[in-house]
Amino acid sequence: MSPFFDHSRDELRRGWLDAWRRGRDGLPLTPLEAQLVDVLQGHPEYHAWLEQGERALAAEFTPEAGVGNPFLHLSMHLALREQVGTDRPAGIALIHARLAARHGQMEAEHRMMEALGRAIWEAQRAARLPDEQAYLEDLRRLA
């Protein structure tokens, strides 16, 4: 497991902010930071918000507030890219390639996020691992 995922919420958020700052300033990036910056570059709507630094770290995102959590959104991109890069579950890389050919990589990921979120939610609700076959079937309907 990546050491990136062994941290607290604030440490994870700080990883995004630090990668953004280093990328913006043209500093050398670790491979993980380069992935984070690549995701961030696809989301210019978050750039000014990221510049808030500590305020961005402390922000709360509740359903009642009606504002999506940018850290969750960005992390879902990273999760999808990991799945596609390893083709796990088997077949996801082909589904992504088809969607990306039609809509571009970022839009393909956005379309796939709903299925990923649903798979995670259903697994948590049932206290089990995600059902990879149901997840893939959900994704296949997109492609």
Based on the model shown, name its key terms.
143 residues; 2 domains; 8 helices; 69% helix; 0% strand; globular
Concise overview:
The chain is mainly alpha-helical and 143 residues long. The protein is built from eight helices and no strands.
How many H/I helical runs? 8
Q: Please tell me what the overall shape is.
A: globular
According to DSSP, the number of beta strands is 0
Q: What is the string of helix and strand elements?
A: HHHHHHHH
Question: What report would you give on this structure?
Answer:
Helices cover 69% and strands 0% of the residues. α5 packs across α7 (105-126), α6 packs across α7 and α7 packs antiparallel against α8. The protein has helices spanning 9-24, 31-41, 47-50, 54-58, 70-86, 92-103, 105-126, 132-142. The mean pLDDT is 92. It is mostly helical. The protein folds into two domains: 1-59, no CATH class; 68-143, no CATH class. It starts with 8 loop residues before the first helix and ends with a helix.
